[in-house]
Amino acid sequence: MYVLALVTQKGGSGKSTLAVGLAVAAMENGERVALVEADPQGTIWRWKERRGDSYPRVDRVSDPAYIEPALARLKAEGTWLAIIDTAATTNAAALRAIARSDLCLIPARPSPADIEAAVPTLIAIRRLNRRFAFILNQTPARGGRLSEAATSLSSLGHLALPYVVQRNDHQDALGAGLGVTEYAPEGKAAEEMVAVWRWVLKKLVEGTVGHEQDAKQAAY
Ligand SMILES: Nc1ncnc2c1ncn2[C@@H]1O[C@H](COP(=O)(O)OP(=O)(O)OP(=O)(O)O)[C@@H](O)[C@H]1O
Ligand SMILES: [Mg+2]
């Protein structure tokens, strides 16, 4: 089972939105996906209540110590991908999520201040020797040039692509209990989410050996 963690202590950067969007995009590709909500704020739990569909499964974890057992249970049940959404702090739950992840995704709005605000999270990731990528979110629709920070992240393979543009579909989908690819499948936001999911999938499987990832990559 792959574990993806959405982490950054910067609030409102898009952790929950991207967790949901990626989970649904992966599910639509036939993967068995679960969301693990390690944020007491409950954004994903409330999304699930609006959803009226039992998939993807959402597990709420009220104590950091329960993250590991929750993941073990999901793995035993045949889950292929668990996506952990964390709170906007480098707390014990976030650290456990990072420690247990195959890949950490760090959403950031495209400003130097927002990227800098992720540094404490990045330090924790490096200390725990985990793989990571930034994912620029809520970028302007008319893309400007890459910032210097984004350019160097990209050249190191630490920047998920494409950027996730600021689009109402993301907010409306969250409000409707849907993934953005379900809410407006033909829209630009959905197109970007599918493309980002492919990027993430490639990164996830790159770090592993065996036949499973070959089959998954062949699906594309
Ligand atoms: N690409 C986007 N386009 C438009 N709105 C977005 C986008 N990404 C996120 N949002 C909106 O920005 C707000 C913050 O997003 P979200 O709740 O996902 O961030 P978060 O990092 O989980 O926040 P918190 O740190 O509070 O948990 C929400 O209202 C969400 O709908
Ligand atoms: Mg959140």
Q: Care to describe what's here?
A:
- The chain contains eleven helices and seven strands.
- Mean pLDDT is 90; it is low at 209-220.
- Helix 1 crosses helix 10 (188-206) and helix 10 packs antiparallel against helix 11.
- The chain has 220 residues and is an alpha/beta fold.
- 47% of the residues lie in helices and 17% in strands.
- The radius of gyration is 16 Å and the shape is globular.
- It has one domain (2-219): Rossmann fold (3-Layer(aba) Sandwich), CATH 3.40.50.300.
- The longest helix has 19 residues, at 188-206.
- A seven-stranded parallel sheet has the order 3-2-4-1-5-6-7, with helices on both faces.
- Adenosine-5'-triphosphate (ATP) binds next to helix 1, strand 6 and helix 8.
Question: Which structural traits does this protein have?
Answer:
alpha/beta; seven-stranded parallel β-sheet; Rossmann fold; 11 helices; 220 residues; binds magnesium ion
End-to-end gap: 19 Å
By DSSP (H or I, 4+ residues per run), the number of helices equals: 11
Class, according to the CATH hierarchy? Answer: Alpha Beta
Radius of gyration: 16 Å
- Kindly name the structural category: alpha/beta
| Name of the CATH architecture | 3-Layer(aba) Sandwich
What is the total tally of β strands? Answer: 7
Q: Which homologous superfamily in CATH is the superfamily?
A: P-loop containing nucleotide triphosphate hydrolases
